Amino acid sequence: MNDWLARLSQLPQQWFESPIAAIALTLGAYFFGIRLFKLVRRPSWCPPMLIAAIVIAMVVASLPIGIDDYNRGASWLMLLLGPATVALAVPLYQQLPQIRALWKPILMTLPLSATLAACYAVIIAAIMGAPKDVLASLAPKSVTSPIALGLAEELGGSRALLMGALLTTGITAIFGVEWLSRILRIRDPRLIGLALGINGHALGTVRAFELGTVAGAFASLGMSLTGAFTAIVLPLVWHLFY
């Protein structure tokens, strides 16, 4: 009996020795998140990504495995982040005439927006006495994951803390942009999409595509330009102070 129980307790560890278990858990949690998101009438404060993250955390915590076991398999999915980001060039190309017509306001808005997105969390954390590695994890929180992970490693930040900050930032940006657009009566999908892309990175871009192709294209533009600007400027500024 004890032998049988011991073997049963080792099954989850054996499953997660292969990446299939982690990939299946990730995809299953995400599809469950989409289903639940639709059932509760698509609240902006609770996107499918958040639901999936909570489900995965609960499953990993309830099984006799560590987060490293899950990450080892799920890292295969991380390889898709780069191509997925590059694929956003398709809607950008489709909306190229509108983007060209607005290149001046976009060029004036982006540096200030990207700088504020990187600075406000770092400044608040610094005032509260956060150590250097926490600040390094928060600095790239408004950038899409492939770029943010590279920046966090270069600056000496924590990968786990960064992923939490990315999720929190995306959810907050979606809620904040939609709330402010209603308060200020902003209905232009280009403005809403650009704001979602700059502040909410990939999560904001996904939400923008739910609003329409124009909003999605401008969110892709905002996310891409914010990522490029932050990747160039943030390390230079960081090494001036640390």
Judging from the principal axes of the Cα atoms, what is the shape? Answer: globular
Note the main sheet: none
**Helix segment tally:** 13
Radius of gyration: 20 Å
Q: Would you report the number of β strands?
A: 0
- The amount of beta strand, in percent, is under 5%
Explain how this protein is built.
The protein has 242 residues and is mainly alpha-helical. It has helices at residues 2-15, 19-39, 48-62, 67-78, 81-86, 89-94, 96-101, 103-127, 132-138, 145-155, 159-183, 189-211, 213-241. Helix 2 (19-39) crosses helix 4. The longest helix has 29 residues, at 213-241.
Could you outline the blueprint of secondary structure elements for this entry?
Layout: H1 2-15, H2 19-39, H3 48-62, H4 67-78, H5 81-86, H6 89-94, H7 96-101, H8 103-127, H9 132-138, H10 145-155, H11 159-183, H12 189-211, H13 213-241
Helix pairs in contact: 2-3, 2-4, 8-9, 8-13, 10-11, 10-13, 11-12, 12-13
